[in-house]
């Protein structure tokens, strides 16, 4: 829903400047190139055009019109707010947050901006900030914010996130306490919706010095902290001896292997050997594939 305000702020007047003489046609031509698309339209008219595009769900075009309105009036609260809504619909959540920041800097009484900024924060998994904004909007009487708090969705997500972070920290501790491994965790959501854990191995580590020759491994978890995939990058010595620079393990929901991909090197560079497993974890089929994922017949 687009926002209707009873007032807007006008842009500050700037002092005229003395410019050197420039041929009139150059001035007119330059002005047309710069302002031609919005020529003759006021910020309100540009904002209204943006609203029409928004209602048609043409959010990228709506952003363009709101931006033109803002370029004319740098303190146009309603245009910032509506552009934030459009960015949100385009899944550009950080841009939406910046626009809602501007709304609240210019007009801190706009409770809807707190609510929608909270929604944007929740989308990028900044749950503490999201809950704080939704609570602020609820305190100001926003009905949607009150309903969101009553549902308990944000607090439930925060509890789940605390549990996830505790599990990940336990995994980090286990990995780091052995052979001085360096562990890095990315918690912003991977392709499976969960955390990514990267572990660096070095000399003295059995995985590095042993038969598997691992110098780095990357674990991919889904949103429920179930391990989906592990990428293992092999050392140069292992690669030289085995003609394989990377191995990828894919897991079922019960943590049994579903398939293993061996990425080959040397003369077979760009090829991979794929091994499939049954529900009991037994290898049932092995195929050779090209870089496009097509099976190469023997």
Largest sheet: 9 strands, antiparallel
The tally of strands reads 9
Gap between N and C termini, in Å? 60 Å
Question: Any idea what the radius of gyration is?
Answer: 28 Å
Strand order of the largest sheet: 1-2-3-4-5-6-7-8-9
| Proportion of beta-strand residues | 15-25%
Helicity, as a percent range? 40-55%
Write the element-wise H/E pattern from the N-terminal end onward. HHHHHHHHHEEHEEHEEEEE
Tally of discrete structural domains: 2
Detailed description of the structure:
With 298 residues, the protein is α+β, with helices and mostly antiparallel strands. It folds into two domains: 24-157, Tetratricopeptide repeat domain (Serine Threonine Protein Phosphatase 5, Tetratricopeptide repeat); 174-296, Outer Surface Protein A, domain 3. The protein is 46% helix and 20% strand. It has eleven helices and nine strands. The protein has helices at residues 24-35, 43-55, 59-72, 77-89, 93-106, 111-123, 127-139, 143-151, 153-176, 206-209, 236-242, and strands at residues 182-186, 193-200, 214-222, 227-234, 244-251, 257-264, 272-277, 283-289, 295-296. A nine-stranded antiparallel sheet has the order 1-2-3-4-5-6-7-8-9. A hairpin with a 5-residue loop joins β7 and β8.
């Amino acid at each position: 829903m687009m926002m209707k305000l009873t007032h807007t702020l006008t842009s500050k007047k700037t002092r005229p400047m003395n410019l050197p003489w420039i041929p009139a046609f150059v001035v007119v031509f330059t002005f047309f190139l710069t302002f031609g698309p919005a020529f003759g339209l006021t910020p309100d008219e540009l904002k209204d055009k943006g609203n029409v595009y928004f209602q048609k769900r043409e959010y990228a075009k709506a952003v363009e019109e709101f931006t033109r309105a803002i370029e004319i009036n740098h303190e146009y609260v309603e245009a910032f707010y509506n552009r934030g809504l459009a960015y949100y619909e385009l899944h550009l959540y950080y841009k939406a947050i910046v626009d809602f920041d501007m709304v609240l800097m210019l007009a801190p009484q706009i409770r809807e901006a707190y609510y929608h900024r909270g929604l944007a924060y929740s989308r990028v998994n900044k749950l503490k900030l999201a809950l704080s904004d939704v609570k602020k909007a609820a305190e100001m009487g926003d009905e949607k914010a009150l309903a969101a708090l009553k549902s308990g969705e944000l607090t439930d997500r925060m509890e789940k996130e605390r549990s996830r972070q505790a599990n990940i920290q336990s995994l980090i501790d286990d990995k780091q306490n052995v052979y001085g491994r360096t562990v890095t965790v990315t918690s912003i959501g991977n392709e499976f919706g969960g955390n990514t854990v990267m572990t660096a191995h070095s000399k003295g580590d059995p995985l590095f010095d042993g038969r598997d020759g691992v110098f780095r491994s990357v674990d991919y978890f889904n949103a429920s902290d179930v391990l989906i995939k592990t990428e293992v990058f092999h050392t140069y010595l292992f690669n030289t001896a085995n003609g394989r620079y990377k191995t990828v393990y894919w897991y079922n929901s019960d943590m049994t292997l579903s398939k293993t991909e061996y990425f080959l090197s040397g003369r077979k560079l760009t090829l991979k050997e794929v091994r499939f497993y049954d529900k009991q974890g037994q290898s049932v089929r092995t195929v050779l594939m090209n870089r496009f994922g097509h099976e190469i017949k023997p």
